[in-house]
Model the fold of this input.
Amino acid sequence: MSHDHDHHHHHDNELDPFAARVRALETILTQKGLIDPAAVDAIVDTYETKVGPRNGAKVVAKAWSDAAYADWLKRDANAAIASLGFVGRQGEHMQAVFNTPDTHNMVVCTLCSCYPWPVLGLPPVWYKAPPYRSRAVIDPRGVLAEFGVTLPAEMKVRVWDSTAELRYLVVPMRPAGSDGLGEEQLAELVTRDSMIGTGLARVPAKGAA
Done:
């Protein structure tokens, strides 16, 4: 798998077979008058720009800055996430897994593409691609390396397999140098990939605190 680490992965292109099939189906349904392209665009825009990973970033930022909330998130992710107003389809059954100095967590759906839409928005195409779905389990360190993430040899990598019954949110470790930042500033350090486990949280710019 080849990745562009500005989070625009090379898998996301017009030639992707899945995307091509979706585009063809959308065209046929539009021509038959069965769907309204404007309504489809509105739904896509909601998950890509209004929801996207911003909701998840707020959850992570609150967990970083509020120990009681972090404990609640560990015990009952559904309730903790819902308390911030983030609920909806594909996010009914959630579990938060926390990265530690000893363990790095990564999420995959080996059967299809189960993904927590309310907190992460639409899944990236590479998440649904067979190479990621198979190799994330077989060679997680190799996959992480392709995303630019190299972990210490002694750090354990744990892979979580999402299902229709349970979806996961990775809470990355809070980066060094983020002391003194408010929740809004902390949320800016949280990337979509860090909440899947294929990335790390951003290090704040010097003087940001």
Observations:
- The chain has two domains: 10-51, 52-196.
- Strands lie at 94-98, 103-108, 156-161, 167-171.
- The CA atoms of residues 171 and 187 lie 12 Å apart.
- The chain is about 45% helix and 10% strand.
